[in-house]
Amino acid sequence: PGGAAAPPLPEEDCMKLNPSFVGIALSSLLAIDLWASKRLGVCAGEGSAWGSARPLMKVIEVSGHGIPWVLGTFYGLCQSDSSAAREVLLNLLFALLLDLVMVAVVKGLVKRPRPTHNKMDMFVTISVDKYSFPSGHATRAALVCRFLLRHLVLAVPLRVLVVLWALIVSISRVMLGRHNMTDVLFGLLLGYALYSVVEHCWLSPATTPALFALW
């Protein structure tokens, strides 16, 4: 009949017609993130605005890569003849391995693709490295920065250099087009938090004598 009321819309259709404020805000932030990240990817290719700086950015990329850090720390641990130095290096190695595992797990769960303008010429990648969130370099930079500042006696200029290195490594991820800004920001927060986990689980001769017996 002409006067009959229309049947109510299914709940899911109502949600599509009336998206939540949170959904709109998240979509807007994501769009801004993608737009700004692409604009800041000035070294994403040789033909980019700052393409001539790309080789330098790739050197910075290697400086924050996990493999050189893990191998270098392991070598130092094997060569050290100081019990105090071995304790610090063993915990740095633990921190680096924890970082690699956590970043791989989060990347595998989130599965956010790399930015479309990224050139896939990264140094030594594995399967989960095709995903973007979070930035493992930013996570490692924040973790290593906190670790070094806490456990090494450094002069003020060196402390400043450590912080600058962490910031430059993180910024370079967006400039190279490897990551979006939110990947880097979350990576920095994750690395900062992982250091607290390392401190809480600190390995020492008293807590893990078997590990120290190996060295």
TrEMBL record:
Cellular-component GO terms for this entry: endoplasmic reticulum membrane; nuclear inner membrane
Main location as per UniProt: endoplasmic reticulum
Ranges annotated as spanning the membrane: 89-110, 152-172, 184-203
Pfam families for this protein: PAP2 (PF01569)
Subcellular location: Endoplasmic reticulum membrane; Nucleus inner membrane
Catalytic activity annotation: (2E)-geranyl diphosphate + H2O = (2E)-geranyl phosphate + phosphate + H(+); (2E,6E)-farnesyl diphosphate + H2O = (2E,6E)-farnesyl phosphate + phosphate + H(+); 1,2-dihexadecanoyl-sn-glycero-3-phosphate + H2O = 1,2-dihexadecanoyl-sn-glycerol + phosphate; (2E)-geranyl phosphate + H2O = (2E)-geraniol + phosphate
UniProt keyword annotations, A-Z: Endoplasmic reticulum, Hydrolase, Lipid metabolism, Membrane, Nucleus, Transmembrane, Transmembrane helix
Alphabetized PANTHER family for the sequence: POLYISOPRENOID DIPHOSPHATE_PHOSPHATE PHOSPHOHYDROLASE PLPP6 (PTHR14969:SF18), SPHINGOSINE-1-PHOSPHATE PHOSPHOHYDROLASE (PTHR14969)
UniProt-recorded name of the protein: Polyisoprenoid diphosphate/phosphate phosphohydrolase PLPP6
Source lineage: Eukaryota, Metazoa, Chordata, Craniata, Vertebrata
Annotated gene: Plpp6
